[in-house]
């Protein structure tokens, strides 16, 4: 175990602090475990500038009675060496344990010195280490006791010293003449300090409180907490002050302060290159429960990632595509009741499929990164303007309009990838997530993504719904900041969202090349007349949701979904059509029976096979997304084939119209993953068979009914 304190500041001259410190010896009633001490060695230089004192200190730790009996000791002894240099105005304290030194190693170093920016202030730093080698099989117990006792005494140490300083002030000792360099001696680092002398007011000497107020007013002009140098890592020798931590980072325990100092000083010593500010360092520590090695590993990995992807420049160099400006329904919007920046996202109005296919996964990720980077900047600005630490932001998710089309697997995969990036590189940045107008399908989406969200982040989600939604929101947002789309008075800058026209989509080849997301999930294949493409999906339990998504790349196609109670082999037929020209001519001129399944020709419609999604014709260029709520067990057969009407209207030997090509994806959402939300799904299953109701075409073909329109 190790400990490293931040710099603690006493707003008193060094000599006054030293006089107060000496009041702790030979014993100190304010420190119950400090039984007493005796001087074992003392040295003073001839000029009086250096004074060294060795003391043997007797301590009475609170330990279990059994442990005391095993160790056969009543008290524990330490050696403390104090070396004061009045010329340099420093005190070095070195303490080591005498008792059980062969079994336990305890070392502590403390330093008092003059504040580098103000000669009338005194700084204090402290570091310690504990190494339990062996202790009669109670090593873990001894370690816990030592850490607990040490942590308790850390908080008490400053309190006791301030008590003795106050005692000095009551005596009128608010000044002590510092060591004077004698003629012929080498000058130390005393500087130009001018110690305040007591002044007489109306013939009476100032009281300690008046002296303190005068000194505070005088020294406030050079207060380092008002400078920005602490938020930068440009100075490799910069130190962290405890008051700065409280003001800019928040209230930390003594050990948390120690871990933060250990991480920062370690990175300053060994890492080359720019580091994040202190608030961001602290986020990584919190994400790893203040485990310094784990936090350091996580941080260094993130710094390498930032360099590889040039994240530091993303706000300056990346420009939002026009599709994002026009259709992305998200924006920053004032702050919540705790001063945290608030981000609005109307997720139900987001066309994730259109967004991915129009700007690509890389730009979607950059959109997320730019939002996170702006969130860091806004949190830092809020800290400065409000005067309290703001280390995270909040989000308001409006799920009005959320439907099964948002469960499009590539979109969900994109969302999971974004969550993975944010968890790894922007930890502890989410204050709370307010979810409003959640529909019945929300539990399904939550089931898919929640396992990938950190447990602490999951606990920050708050559902605000029902008739009292506005009143619920007032617990978290100011009345005047409630968005207009939630019947509030505040206008927002969010885009309208909505369906992105197919005319804005990237070419299919560019989509598949973009980060591999679509190419790894979609299958591109061809089919010919007389040899349709068929995919078998087996469903072992009712309540599942069968989903599909496809683009018609060439020619028109007819799409049908069949069901049979028989369990067929889960295959795709054919893997690649290989009909020769003679076979194609035969298929083209032959009469193919309607509703024929080629995977198992023995299946007869109306006997052992039914149609669960009626056949519909889609034109070249159409994009279709749909789903079916499975009320029966068995095999579901998705079939794509060349439409009969298209063939009959063309020349018999025009082979180009006898061959179709699609890019498709299918998935079954298992009812077991819904975690009790199947009832909600079934209650709105009528909407599961519907496709996106918006078409890029001027009008919908008459052959396509409302429940199954192409996007």
Automatic annotation (TrEMBL):
GOLD domain ranges (all copies): 501-668
PROSITE patterns to which the protein is assigned, alphabetical: CRAL_TRIO, GOLD, PRELI_MSF1
GO cellular component: cytoplasm
InterPro entries: CRAL-TRIO_dom, CRAL-TRIO_dom_sf, CRAL/TRIO_N_dom, CRAL/TRIO_N_dom_sf, GOLD_dom, GOLD_dom_sf, PRELI/MSF1_dom, SEC14/CRAL-TRIO_domain
Chain ranges of the CRAL-TRIO domain: 320-494
Domain PRELI/MSF1: 1-173
Protein name per UniProt: CRAL-TRIO domain containing protein
Organism from which the protein derives: Pristionchus fissidentatus
Taxonomic path: Eukaryota, Metazoa, Ecdysozoa, Nematoda, Chromadorea
């Amino acid at each position: 175990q190790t400990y490293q304190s931040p710099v603690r500041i006493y707003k008193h001259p060094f000599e006054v602090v030293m006089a107060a410190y000496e009041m702790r010896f030979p014993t100190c009633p304010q420190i119950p475990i400090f039984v007493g001490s005796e001087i074992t060695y003392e040295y003073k230089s001839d000029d009086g500038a250096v004074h060294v004192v060795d003391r043997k200190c007797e301590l009475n730790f609170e330990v279990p009675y059994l442990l005391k009996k095993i160790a056969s000791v009543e008290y524990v002894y330490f050696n403390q060496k104090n070396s004061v240099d009045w010329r340099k105005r420093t005190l070095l304290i070195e303490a080591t344990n005498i008792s059980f030194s062969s079994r336990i190693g305890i070392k502590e170093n403390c330093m008092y010195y003059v504040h580098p920016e103000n000669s009338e202030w005194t700084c204090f730093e402290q570091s310690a280490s504990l190494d339990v080698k062996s202790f009669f099989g109670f090593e873990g117990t001894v370690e816990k006791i030592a850490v607990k006792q040490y942590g308790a005494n850390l908080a008490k140490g400053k309190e006791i010293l301030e008590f003795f300083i106050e005692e000095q002030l009551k005596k009128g000792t608010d000044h002590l003449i510092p060591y004077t360099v004698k003629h012929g001696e080498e000058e130390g680092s005393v500087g130009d300090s001018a110690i305040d002398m007591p002044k007489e007011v109306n013939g009476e000497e100032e009281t300690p409180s008046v002296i303190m107020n005068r000194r505070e007013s005088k020294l406030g002009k050079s207060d380092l907490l008002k400078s920005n140098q602490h938020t930068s890592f440009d100075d490799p020798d910069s130190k962290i002050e405890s008051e700065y931590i409280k003001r800019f980072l928040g209230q930390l325990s003594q050990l948390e302060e120690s871990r933060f100092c250990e991480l920062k000083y370690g990175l300053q010593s060994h890492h080359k290159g720019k580091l994040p500010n202190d608030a961001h360092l602290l986020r990584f520590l919190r994400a790893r429960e203040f485990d310094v090695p784990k936090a350091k590993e996580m941080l260094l990995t993130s710094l390498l990632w930032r360099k590889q992807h040039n994240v530091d420049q993303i706000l300056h160099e990346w420009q939002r595509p026009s599709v994002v400006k026009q259709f992305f329904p998200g924006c920053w919007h004032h702050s919540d009741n705790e001063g945290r920046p608030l981000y609005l996202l109307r997720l139900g109005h987001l066309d994730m499929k259109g967004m991915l296919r129009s700007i690509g996964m890389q730009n979607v990720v950059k959109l997320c990164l730019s939002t996170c980077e702006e969130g860091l900047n806004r949190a830092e600005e809020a800290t400065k303007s409000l005067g309290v630490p703001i280390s995270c932001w909040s989000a308001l998710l409006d799920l009005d309009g959320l439907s099964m089309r948002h469960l499009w697997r590539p979109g969900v995969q994109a969302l999971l990838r974004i969550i993975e990036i944010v968890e790894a590189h922007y930890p502890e940045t989410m204050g709370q997530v307010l979810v409003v107008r959640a529909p019945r399908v929300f539990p399904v989406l939550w089931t898919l993504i929640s396992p990938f969200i950190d447990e602490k982040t999951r606990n920050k989600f708050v559902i605000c719904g029902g008739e009292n939604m506005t009143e619920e929101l007032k617990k978290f947002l100011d009345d005047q900041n409630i968005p207009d789309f939630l019947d509030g008075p505040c206008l927002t800058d969010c885009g309208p969202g909505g369906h992105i026209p197919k005319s804005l989509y990237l070419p299919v080849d560019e989509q598949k090349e973009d980060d591999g997301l679509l190419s790894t999930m979609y299958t591109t294949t061809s089919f010919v007349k007389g040899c349709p493409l068929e995919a078998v999906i087996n469903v072992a339990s009712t309540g599942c949701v069968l989903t599909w998504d496809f683009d018609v790349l060439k020619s028109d196609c007819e799409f049908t979904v069949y069901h049979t109670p028989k369990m067929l082999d889960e295959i795709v037929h054919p893997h690649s059509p290989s009909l020769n020209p003679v076979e194609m001519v035969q298929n083209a001129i032959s009469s193919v029976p309607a509703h024929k399944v080629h995977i198992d020709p023995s299946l007869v419609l109306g006997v052992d096979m039914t149609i669960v999604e009626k056949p519909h014709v889609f034109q070249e260029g159409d994009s279709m997304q749909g789903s079916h709520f499975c009320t029966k067990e068995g095999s579901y057969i998705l079939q794509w084939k060349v439409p009969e009407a298209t063939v009959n209207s063309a020349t018999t030997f025009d082979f180009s119209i006898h061959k179709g090509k699609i890019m498709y994806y299918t998935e079954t959402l298992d009812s077991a993953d819904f975690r009790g939300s199947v009832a909600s799904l079934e209650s709105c299953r009528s909407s599961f068979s519907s496709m996106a109701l918006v078409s890029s075409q001027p009008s919908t073909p008459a052959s396509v009914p409302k429940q199954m329109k192409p996007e």
